[in-house]
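User: structure tokens for Small ribosomal subunit protein bS21, please.
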Amino acid sequence: MEVEVEDGKVDAAIKTLKKKLNRAGVFRKIKEKRYYEPPSAKKQRKRKEILRRAKKKLKKQLKRY
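Assistant: Done. Predicted tokens:
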């Protein structure tokens, strides 16, 4: 991943890089890989994530009407 530094604006470049890395899911992957997660716990976590996203989507759809 690359970010161009313009006119010595390092802080802005770091902010842009962090935003790009966050959107790519790099921080989430690092957090997940920090410790070993058994396959059963991984399946359970993924199921919870799917349910959370479904609830969020449903809530968003209901809010429109």
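User: Anything notable?

Assistant: Helices lie at 10-24, 26-33, 39-64.
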